């Protein structure tokens, strides 16, 4: 007997996130109504060393003050769930119909190969996640991203799971899945963080998909700030692989051709700020563009999801849409770059252990995808699931 419905793995089944709406990214104007952050106040000090900035912040501000200032976020951390339990969606072990689930990845996906493994999940469930049809010859589910799943399923066939990472391309709920899966997308790549920061060039930006609207926005802010633009769009460094020439310590393998991801974290970490602009201005659509910057140790200047603070730690990013104009934003960035104490406060969340909403984001990252999906498949019954 055939089932005509395609099993689509909706993230909202496991996690509660805000509804999604899509629009184009807007450039701030002087008429934008927003509450501006206070400008840093101290004698200008174009510092070069992060550790020295941290020591100044520790002596003049400190974690106790930061935690008190963000007490609501500290409370959220204590109430957040473990990595394998969705916020507000704790499923009972009795709902599971299988104690072992196998998921076979079909075709090319953005999910890194190093996710392949056998996982020990909650409730005694084991989960085998692999791209090998030899190691997993009888999968309980087939996972598709860039290839189209079969439209029909016979009784006893594996369930079909489809993931869409682009907002607005299919059902609007799917864009939420992108926002929570991207933070660990490059977990298999080189992770080097520099303690030394250039002083004359403040902002890093890299893009090779030159969307007109994103280019216009990037140009409007970068024209006001010292910056290096890598990639094909607005390149001002003399070539696509110049990051590896500027920062040879970022070369992953000197015996192989450079790849675009070789400089993502390492080169970013040499700058005080990283410009991160989403392809689409959509609620809850927060992608790797922001999390690469956050993980590198730079301070992201972000344009994208209007509810981005639902996904990041407190006082960790600069939301460019909250300023009345690009000039006002640029003035704030310049002032921040000359104030080691104010700049160090953007790193206080990780040094003081204040996750806030970021705890929920981490709980829905690639780290936990295999177990979350296997639990969902187990509740369905895998191959024994009724056709739907």
What does this 3D model show about the protein?
The chain has 13 helices and 14 strands. By secondary structure, the protein is an alpha/beta fold. Among the domains are: 98-181 and 366-384, no CATH class; 203-362, 3-Layer(aba) Sandwich (Rossmann fold). The strands form 4 sheets. It has a 5-stranded mixed beta sheet with strand order 4-5-3-6-8, covered by helices on one side. It has a 5-stranded parallel beta sheet with strand order 10-9-11-13-14. A two-stranded antiparallel ribbon has the order 1-7. Helix 5 (212-222) links the parallel strand 9 (203-206) and strand 10. Residues 1-23, 29-39, 77-89 and 169-190 have low confidence and may be disordered. It is an enzyme of class 2 (transferase). Residues 1-22 form the signal peptide. It comes from Mikania micrantha. Belongs to the glycosyltransferase 10 family. It is a single-pass type II membrane protein.
Question: Which terms would index this structure?
Answer:
Glyco_trans_10; 14 strands; 388 residues; five-stranded parallel sheet; alpha-(1->3)-fucosyltransferase activity; globular; 27% helix; Rossmann fold; Fucosyltransferase
| First-residue to last-residue Cα separation | 11 Å
CATH C-level category of the domain at 203-362: Alpha Beta
Percent strand equals 5-15%
The largest β sheet comes out as: 5 strands, mixed
Strand arrangement, major sheet: 4-5-3-6-8
The overall pLDDT average reads 78
> What is the CATH superfamily label of the domain at 203-362?
Glycosyl transferase family 10, C-terminal domain
Distinct helical segment count: 13
CATH fold-level name of the domain at 203-362: Rossmann fold
